[in-house]
Amino acid sequence: MERKKAIGIMGGTFDPIHYGHLVTAEAVRSEFGLEKVYFVPSGNPPHKDPKEVSDSQHRYLMTFLSITTNFYFETSPIEINRPGKSYAYDTVKAFRDNFPDYDLYFITGADAIKEILTWHRVEEVLDLCYFVAATRPGYNLDDLKKEELKVLPPEYLERILIIEVPAMAISSTDIKKRVRERKPIKYLLPEAVEHYIYKKKLYV
Length: 204
Ligand code: ATP
Ligand code: MG
What we know:
Layout: E1 6-12, H1 19-32, E2 37-41, H2 56-67, E3 73-75, H3 88-98, E4 103-109, H4 110-115, H5 122-128, E5 130-134, H6 141-148, H7 154-157, E6 160-163, H8 172-180, H9 191-199
Parallel strand pairs: 1-2, 1-4, 2-3, 4-5, 5-6
Helix pairs in contact: 2-9, 3-5
The structure holds adenosine-5'-triphosphate and magnesium ion.
């Protein structure tokens, strides 16, 4: 039997996007044979203070600049064009409607997967897609599945997949701090994004 076609959805604030995000998406793409990975910058992140998040146009453009060198990567403005708060549920539902014949893989870091229990309509999200939790330094993934997520019914737990990606201690928070402190950010993110940050005087 032929395997079902599949695509990935990588949601994030991407303020800024960095090689942690890109390496993770590429690892998941290759591991699960995804046809494409769509990067979806968030509009108004429900869990973050709007004052602390850069304009969505900047975040979208930095994401766009980052994916040009990968044939399999695309960006989607679906969340930034949607008024009101961004919920993963609405995004996954929109992809489900647009790609009815595909398996959907929602890609997150292991830290973010711990938060899913607090998400809006989490069980409905898990009805629509698989979740892939990528390792991030400092997170023990076996414990995660055994302890934190075991409150989920087993049929949902099965839809959460865990993969290890090359350990990358890169975070947007750290990059912003480095810019503020005039420290280098070179080699932590694509060069075009580095230039964009300086040109637009972001994070100063
Ligand atoms: P912040 O420092 O503000 O938390 P971030 O670096 O985590 O930012 P986000 O845009 O919040 O960036 O992350 C989007 C998704 O990418 C989340 O699911 C997050 O867990 C994951 N992610 C972020 N950094 C890494 C990394 N270095 N390796 C693997 N996954 C990551
Ligand atoms: Mg984060």
